[in-house]
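Is flavin-adenine dinucleotide placement plausible here? Inputs below.
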Amino acid sequence: MSGSPPPRKPALRVAIVGAGVVGLSIALELRSRGADVAVYDRGIELGGGVSIRAAGMLGAAFEWAAEHDKRALAALARHAGQLWPDHAARLERLGGGPVEYSREGALVVARTAGEVEWIASLTAACQARSFSALTLPLKDLAVREPALAPDLLGGLWLADDQQVDPVLVLQRLGAALARTGVGLRFGRQVDRITAGQHFLMPDGEHYDRVVIANGAQPAPVFVGPRGARLSLGLPAPVPVKGQILAIAPIEQGPRHVIHTRDVYIAPKSRWILVGATTERNRADTEVDRDAIAQLRARAAALVPALADAPELTAWAGVRPGSPDDQPLIGQTAIPGVFAALGHYRNGVLFAPATAEIVADQVIDGKVSPLAAAFDPTRFDNPDAAPHSPSVKGSDN
Ligand SMILES: Cc1cc2nc3c(=O)[nH]c(=O)nc-3n(C[C@H](O)[C@H](O)[C@H](O)COP(=O)(O)OP(=O)(O)OC[C@H]3O[C@@H](n4cnc5c(N)ncnc54)[C@H](O)[C@@H]3O)c2cc1C
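Reply from A.M.:
I modeled the complex. Tokens:
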């Protein structure tokens, strides 16, 4: 039989709102599956949101092993952690440079009897969820991380936890997308999208699907062809401010991520990060010197050399929280519009898993069992979800 081949199906056109680690990772995944993708961001360049302000810990075990009421989140974290080695290699290959991916694992240390007990329960929780957790006798702890204070009371090594430099991750994502033909549209605030046969963006471009990944900001308004407002069924975002300190790298500084209950230390080659405050319902990025001094004092109790090392800078970022502190991933109440929001304190960790889940839905209409608990329309009373009172402590 002869004749011309069947016409090729045109590529699915997808607009992503938000060029943070979540939106950019989704763009890369969609592009690799053949979609025609454009990312819109209100910032003038990469890094307008919180992603570039993160510590870059990929702490699936530390973060989620002990959260008994959040099994689905632990499963998502584990899956994301498993994706990261290949994801990092892909970013380095396509983005043309390192992301400082490290598999040294994380140490959890105790300074008090209460923290020794806390470590014991974390160890049991990790073992119950098959995360690697190795209790370290004090002499082994000192060998593994010589920078630690000599008077600690206990230690645990979480071998599965990893880390990257989030600044480099964003840079590599940007380069990889530019190289693979994804349109990066900076300086484009998207406030309103018209839904009809296609989705019409403010710049007049049409798309078949829209993904909202704009972090802690309210989602754009969607209207029908006659201007009537359509509900996405999403709750209002819950901003959670986090302050963090960057200390100059020091000789014989720490090599691992080190956690205790109220502070963490995440060493990178450009600086040593010490974080972070957790200030719920705060959306400002002011730095409070008392909070930073407190972080420094807590870090110096773990690694004495950090007491006097020069401060390079300190900053605050706004984590995109949600009413139940769990992400919103999947189709919204408007068919063809997807959410990738509410990644709170683990957006860097979750990004490759969210990208996979969203791409499965957008391209194949397939809902991953991993995503069932994160249906973005799960809240009964969208846009009116109550905010819980402000709390301060230490977290990512
Ligand atoms: C101090 C601190 C430490 C952290 N440490 C870690 C960590 O170690 N590991 C980890 O996994 N996570 C960490 N996090 C959390 C992590 O930073 C976030 O979960 C993640 O960056 C969220 O990414 P995002 O892409 O959803 O949001 P963002 O990075 O904020 O991206 C959203 C983008 O949307 C754009 N935008 C917003 N509204 C619009 C609009 N209307 N139109 C167009 N563009 C718009 C913004 O300009 C922005 O670029 C930390 C956070 C903080 C504050």
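Short version: Residues 103-162+238-321 form a domain with the D-Amino Acid Oxidase; Chain A, domain 2 fold (CATH 3.30.9.10).
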